[in-house]
Amino acid sequence: MNINWKLNIILLFIAVLITILPLMVIRNSEFSGSDGKAEETTQEIRNDFEPWFSPFWEPPGGETENLLFAVQAAIGSGIIFYYIGYLKGKSEAVKK
C-alpha cells in the first residue's frame, strides 16, 4: 500500500465518524431542516393551506432524514469530482 491509499482510508474513516458521531452524542434532539421551517412559515401565513401530497415513507427521526440527505449529497459530489479527476488525468495523459 502506498501512502495515498492509506491517507484515503483515514480520511474516509474521519468522514464517516463526523457523520455518525453527532447522531450518537446528541440524543433526543431535533435537527430541523429548511422543509420544516417552510411548512411552519406557510401555516403561519395561511392557516387553511393543505399540502398537495404526503410522503409515502417517513424516516424514524429527523436525524435519520438529515443523515440520508447528507449521504445523498456526498454520493453526488463524489460522482462529480470523480469525473473531474478523470478528465484531468485524461488530459495529462494526452500531454505526455
Please summarize what this structure is.
The protein is mainly α and 96 residues long.
Please describe what this structure looks like.
With 96 residues, the protein is mainly alpha-helical. Helices cover 72% and strands 0% of the residues. It is elongated and about 65 Å long.
Topology:
Blueprint: H1 3-25, H2 34-45, H3 62-95
Tell me roughly what share of residues is in helical segments: over 70%
**Percentage of residues in strands:** under 5%
Number of helices: 3
Radius of gyration: 20 Å
What structural class do you assign from the helix and strand content?
Answer: mainly alpha
Total beta strand runs: 0
Shape: elongated
- How far the N terminus sits from the C terminus, by CA atoms, comes to 26 Å
Key features of this structure:
about 100 residues, about 70% helix, elongated
